[in-house]
Specification:
There is one protein chain. Helix content is 36%, strand content 22%. The chain is of the alpha/beta class. The chain folds into 2 domains: 243 residues, P-loop containing nucleotide triphosphate hydrolases (Rossmann fold, 3-Layer(aba) Sandwich); 91 residues, no CATH class. Strand 11 and strand 12 form a beta hairpin. Helix 3 crosses helix 4 and helix 9 packs across helix 11. The longest helix has 29 residues. The termini are far apart. About 4% of the residues have low confidence.
Amino acid sequence: MVDHWDAYFAADLAAEERDNPRDPIVGMDWAALATVAPTRKAFVIPRLAPAGQLTLFTGPGSAGKSLFMQQVCAAMAAGVPTLGLDMGQGATVYLSCEDDAGELHYRQAAICRALGFGMAELAGKFTADSLFGRLDNVLGHIRETGIFVPGRGYERIAELVKRTGAKLVCLDNAAHLFAGNENDRAQVTQFVSALNRLAGETGAAIVLLAHTNKAFVQGNRQGNAHSGSTAWVNALRSQFVIEHDEETDLRTITLSKANYAAKGEAVRFAWQDGAFVLESDLSPDAGRELASVIKANGENAAFMRCLAICTGNRRNVSHQPGTNYAPKTFAGMPEAKGIKVAGFAAAMERLLHLGRIELDADLWPGPNRHPKRGIRATDGAAQ
């Protein structure tokens, strides 16, 4: 008697064989390869996205992932460098599940102005489309046996990449394209393998965008992983992240996982007039404003750092000129890192206005039981 479950799994296995026919493992031909000079992995986006591979691009919402990739795709299609990256010229694809066609058009107009070419020049070279609101964006489904099977969504993208000959493909974003368990290593790995297969078959660099959260791990500047599932990062050989300093509005692209290039900072840029430009290419007025903000933020941070040390040592400092005048005291500390009295005085005024410090506060009991008074960080102020 045939067990019901045996019959069920036999049928499921037959379906998997039909959808994914077996490819024999034949091994590398070492004799033939002995006469061929080896080459290093080629990159489509220098240092960031290798050819023939899937790369994960993560970052918080509104950091600029979508704009960055649309700008890079348009630049490559037009054959112009952008943000210090020279991709050469080649066909590109950008598919967005989160922005409608009107937003892509509006964004592209600003990109064209910033890079200095007409939108019509992209015809036949840059395929951008909105999949916003479509219910068939998922690239496949997970069988009950846990096997990922590519579906019509995958076939549609594969046909597009092959038809256009695209060498750079951006898929925005993973949450709309993957319908499995994002914390299941096996499911994630199979989904990644499907896209890696398409990349390998076409030679394209495929960049998959994902929001930073517990399911998508991004690395910080020291390469440490944030909390959450590591399934996505472990399944890929290449990942880069975008960080957004909201006080300066500067963005930084950093290689978080790089099996084919050196890890570290790759690009630093700012938003200007609807597109991204290198920090060094900002207009004079914008550059001066940014430099002023960065200087002020550095002074503020140093003030709070020195205040925390003095408070920890029960050394009260004051806003009033005298022996314990805070700006003068802080300027003489190693933690000042070269900031002078005037810089600390300006920081004190800013921090007072921001509500991060208070003056003449009761700090701790003195020798005569009268409270020592001075500057104190407010509750919740960054130290």
